[in-house]
Amino acid sequence: MRKNIIAGNWKMHATHLEAIQMVQKLSYRLDPADYERVDVVVIPPATALRSAQTVIETDHLPIGLGAQNCHWEESGAFTGEVSPAMLAKLSVSYVLAGHSERRQLFGESDETVNMKTRAILANQMTPIVCVGETEQQRDEGETEDVLRTQVTGGLAGLEAEAVAGLVVAYEPVWAIGTGRTATPDDAAAGCGFIRDVVREGWGEDAAEALRIQYGGSVKPGNIAAIMAKHDIDGALVGGASLDPDTFAAVVRYWV
Ligand code: PGA
Questions:
Q1: Mean pLDDT, to the nearest integer, of 198-202?
Q2: Whose CA is nearest to atom 2 of ligand 1?
Q3: Measured from the CB, is residue 42 less than 6 Å from ligand 1?
Q4: Predicted confidence (pLDDT) per residue in 42-61, tens digit
């Protein structure tokens, strides 16, 4: 049985002071029973990680901490970058790799996503590997080719046991921040296809254990229908994760 995982990707929003309040407010709205059903993760910007971690540790909150990006080297002359070892030391458990905004705006390729994924794993954290087609690729019937290339490229060379512990987020680019959610059937088709690609490359056990999130304009009003789909094990939530009330309503999707 795969445990659901719902993660809030704050993107470039929230100062470290706002982050403290956001994590605290979120925790007031969630019960122990919610955390039993769902792994709840917040992914603040790098400058807010330390404050979020302090709140989580001081208040003993069962909220996972995630980072939005990292470099693949442990340390070195890489001005402006943050290393996976630095994140691990901050009790970060999840790191996004290859979010579509990083691919589109910052030139990330399947190769760098693969190097980051390996580095995240080597530092005992869980990569959330993001994949998804653009609108044009979908219109041209290339969705499956794109997903196959991104999954096999991003996970290239990994052992089956490592793949089993990963999270992959299926985020159709046309659905991110646009208010246009994929239909639950489209979301499930993408997630199911990703699981098939993993099955072909890494075997049945890895495919069954790997958790796959849907992302793209997830909100309280559409999360239940998305989570009802067999191959969808959670959500990567952008805009709707910035308000703790709204994010809590997404986490408690069954209520
Ligand atoms: P959105 O973002 O929920 O605002 O569409 C999702 C994401 O980019 O992870």
A1: 98
A2: 238
A3: no
A4: 999 999 999 999 999 999 99
- Ligand 1 atom nearest to CA at 169: 9
Stated pTM of the model: 0.97
pLDDT for 181 equals 84
Indicate which atom in ligand 1 lies nearest the CA of residue 240.
3
180 lines ligand 1 (CB under 6 A): no
What is the 184 CA–ligand 1 centroid distance (Å)? Answer: 16
Evaluate: CB of 239 within 6 angstroms of ligand 1: yes
Q: Kindly report the average pLDDT of the chain as a whole number.
A: 97
- For the chain, the maximum distance between any two Cα atoms, rounded to a whole number of angstroms, is 51
Digit-coded pLDDT (tens) for 122-161: 999 999 999 999 999 999 999 999 999 999 999 999 999 9
CB-ligand 1 contact for 171 (6 Å cutoff): yes
Name which residue sits closest to atom 6 of ligand 1, judged by CA.
Answer: 238
Tell me whether residue 101 is one of the annotated catalytic residues. no
User: 3-class secondary structure for the chain?
Assistant: CCCEEEEEECCCCCCHHHHHHHHHHHHHCCCHHHHHHEEEEEECCHHHHHHHHHHHHHCCCCEEEEECCCCCCCCCCCCCCCCHHHHHHCCCCEEEECCHHHHHHCCCCHHHHHHHHHHHHHCCCEEEEEECCCHHHHHCCCHHHHHHHHHHHHCCCCCHHHHHCCEEEECCHHHCCCCCCCCHHHHHHHHHHHHHHHHHHHCHHHHHHCEEEEECCCCHHHHHHHHCCCCCCEEEECHHHCCHHHHHHHHCCCC
Give the model's pLDDT for residue 177: 87
From the alpha carbon of 100, which atom of ligand 1 is closest?
8
